[in-house]
Specification:
The protein has helices at residues 6-16, 76-80, 82-92, 101-115, 119-143, 161-170, 194-199, and strands spanning 26-31, 35-41, 44-45, 147-152, 184-187. The longest helix is centred in the middle third of the chain and has 25 residues, at 119-143. The chain is built from seven helices and five strands. By secondary structure, the chain is an alpha/beta fold. Strand 2 and strand 3 (44-45) form a beta hairpin. The chain has a five-stranded mixed sheet, with helices on both faces. The chain has a domain at 57-196: 2-Layer Sandwich (Nucleotidyltransferase, domain 5), CATH 3.30.420.40. The protein starts with 5 loop residues before the first helix and ends with a helix. Bound molecules: zinc ion. Zinc ion (ZN) is lined by residues 58, 68, 70, 72, 75.
Length: 202
């Protein structure tokens, strides 16, 4: 039996049954504790021979930046994972960081960003979204997908205005090399269950 990581399983579910089913070229990003991903080209999952590859979370987006769990500095996931956002916002608010992603999204961000207009938390959120946009646009430039699917805990941001803030940043001018139509950016249809559904496909 071939063991595949959660991000690849989730990507398979989205490709076969979910958000990517009508597309041949797609990038799947799983945003949670870290950032994982998978890429489909011409309908096929790209798989290197040597290591698993597609460690999107560990591409460096800030040279000499924050220490990542992998030991490198400045990795994408050290800035743009849901864990990174949670750590920063709870630090700003001097709170225990051991909260659920749902609490962060539905209570803290809603209250501090959209109701209290807390400038410091808004800046934390803006920084997070800018790093997320940077990483996504790097992947768009490399793979030229027709669609980018955002899964993991971020799939629960589907109806949250924060998702539109991200879209505005990605769709702004001069964020990608090719200035034509940007790929479609959506959240994962199967949310956090995608990994389990995908595991049955292989
Ligand atoms: Zn790393």
């Amino acid at each position: 039996m071939i063991l595949r990581n959660d991000a690849k399983c989730a990507a398979m579910a989205e490709k076969v049954y979910g958000a990517m089913k009508d597309y041949k070229d797609g990038v799947f990003l799983c945003l949670g504790t870290g950032i994982g991903g998978a890429v489909f080209m011409d309908g096929k999952l790209l798989e290197p021979k040597r290591y698993s590859g597609f460690e999107m979370g560990h591409m460096v987006i800030n040279k000499g930046g924050r220490l990542c769990s992998c030991g490198k500095k400045g990795c994408f996931e050290a800035y743009a994972s849901i864990k990174a956002l949670k750590t920063k916002v709870t630090e700003t608010l001097d709170m225990d960081s051991d909260i659920s992603g749902e609490y962060l999204r539905e209570v803290i961000l809603k209250r501090e960003v959209f109701e209290n207009h807390n400038e410091v938390v808004i800046q934390d959120l803006e920084n997070f979204l800018e790093y997320l946009q940077t990483g996504i646009c790097n992947l768009i430039d490399i793979f030229e997908p027709e669609i980018v699917v955002l899964g993991g805990s971020f799939s629960y941001y589907e109806k949250n205005p924060i998702f539109n803030m991200l879209l505005d940043k990605i769709n702004a001018p001069k964020t990608t090399f090719n200035e034509g139509e940007k790929p479609k950016i959506v959240t994962a249809e199967f949310k956090n269950d995608a990994g389990i559904i995908g595991a049955t496909l292989i």
